[in-house]
Amino acid sequence: MIERLLPSSVSSAEAFADVPGEPVHPGEQDLVRDAAAIRRGEFVTARRCAREALARLGYPPAAIRPGPRREPRWPDGAVGSITHCAGYRAAAVARAVDLAGVGIDAEPHGPLPDGVADVVAGPDELAMLARARPGTHWDRVLFSAKESIYKVWYPLTGRWLGFEDVHLAIDPVTSTFRGRILIDGTRADGGPPLTELHGSYLIEHGLVLTAVAVSCGALSTLGARVEFQASHRRE
Predict the structure, then answer these.
(1) Binding positions for CoA (predicted)?
(2) For the chain, which residues make up each domain, given as ranges?
């Protein structure tokens, strides 16, 4: 599923269930030593997906350790993202010569818990959601899109990006979104500042999937510059 949202240069892998008793990869045992069974299972499966995706790019299997914000630390020359939620785990990676960054997120297609929308969406975004055609949990789409944006933002800037620091516009006709960055988008790698990030979403099998990719030497890719039309957990 997730590959439908990503450029052809991205290698991805996904799973819809964990393998009972699957061992933790060497070098990652301490990361889930005290974790509950559910957390351990999603971690092992998601990391396996990441190694499968990396293998298609020619990388040998290796431990994938977390960075200071729990972001995966990829092998030299690779960029990518990992996501997991109930019933779904996935990873997407690319060579750094092909893309500057990749961010993906998966969420259950259901309403956000009470009060969460007020935290993740600003007044204009809440008004946008209120105008939306029923049948889709747009608050969850917005949340997932901002998660994908953060996952591609942090490795490129090394700075936190709060929900309030992104203004999101969604186009349900093209299943795309645009995130306008409201803070300094200077990149640590010297690339063009991140002022807007564009992505795509998919709603299928009870899931919301979102993806953002940043091309080398460009502001962003995936998605068009469109506004929402009323008719129509970070790792």
Answers:
(1) 39, 47, 83-84, 105, 147, 151, 161
(2) 1-235
